[in-house]
Amino acid sequence: MRIGIPREIKNFEDRVSVIPAGVREFVANGHTVLVETGAGLGAGLADEAYVAAGAKIAPDAETVFAESDMIVKVKEPQAIERKRLREDQILFTYLHLAPDPEQTKDLMASGATCIAYETVTSPTGGLPLLMPMSEVAGRMSVQAGAHCLENAQGGCGMLLGGVPGVPAADVVILGGGVVGTHATQMALGLGASVTVVDRSADVLRRLNAQFGTAVKTAYSNTQTIAELVANAELVLGTVLIPGASAPKLITRDMLSTMRKGSAIVDVAIDQGGCTETSRATTHSEPTYVVDGVVHYCVANMPGGVARTSTFALANATLPYALAIANKGWKQALADDPHLKAGLNVQGGRITYKAVSDALGYDYLEADKTLAA
Q1: Is 60 a catalytic residue?
Q2: 367 is annotated as an active-site residue
Q3: Which residue of 285, 286, 327, 357 has the smallest Cβ count within 10 Å?
């Protein structure tokens, strides 16, 4: 199979989907790898490293898309990239389709087979290709939130951990999954007062066992969230429903009760955000202010630490990409029900239920497209 690695073009997206070690694996399995020139520079990976691993360097993205059987990316294809996809092509990347009707429409029109990292599952029920970026985003969310509280960013001028004789900031984390757990670890490490909210008693027990009395936990309901955010300096939104739009846990009315100069970091923005006032921002313009509350809603947070994120993501995705290349997408998905869960669009049809429900399209079971 011919594997194409284009350079990412989303705002300040410096990650790359495959590292030179991954190229060696593809080549050792008999495949050809075409890498767009400069694709790895943001992660400190020069073209020469890819050539040494056996890749061919393409002069531009048009060449990569035109000459590849499978496109392996990091972020969802931008409009110009979607126009380059074709019916006999495989796209393997993050998609986050539920809150993105334009992308969904274009991918359906392309006829391509589109497999999303974020809905691939594991035997234990986890999301193995989302997990490494969730770990990064969880840790980054605390850094970003601490920065948002600075006066220069419109914040209240509060140091997250305080100092002796001056209280630490109150941090509320909505969601105790992978992102929330890593955010908790970072916030506690900086000395903040941390409360984690989740609707799963098992998650709250796990957090209590992991962090002890250092973290406060609360069962998620509207009243509890309203009371906590009204007294918080920093709120981190980390909720996730796989493949579906994020629930709006913070309403505009709740926002009006928050302290002026407080901040919200909405890590769920890839799936539409968990605050009614959230809208996607970029690394170049990461924040905006509503009702005196600083909002940080960067949709590709891990792209800000491209080298760490690239290696973490590439290591996780490589076994799946190799399976698709070695077997073809139909056989690879038929052999692995967890990889099959990643199929979101195929031949112009939606094959992931949460996406069809969110956007109002007819749903085609993945098994039926595999049998066709």
Answers
A1: no
A2: no
A3: 285
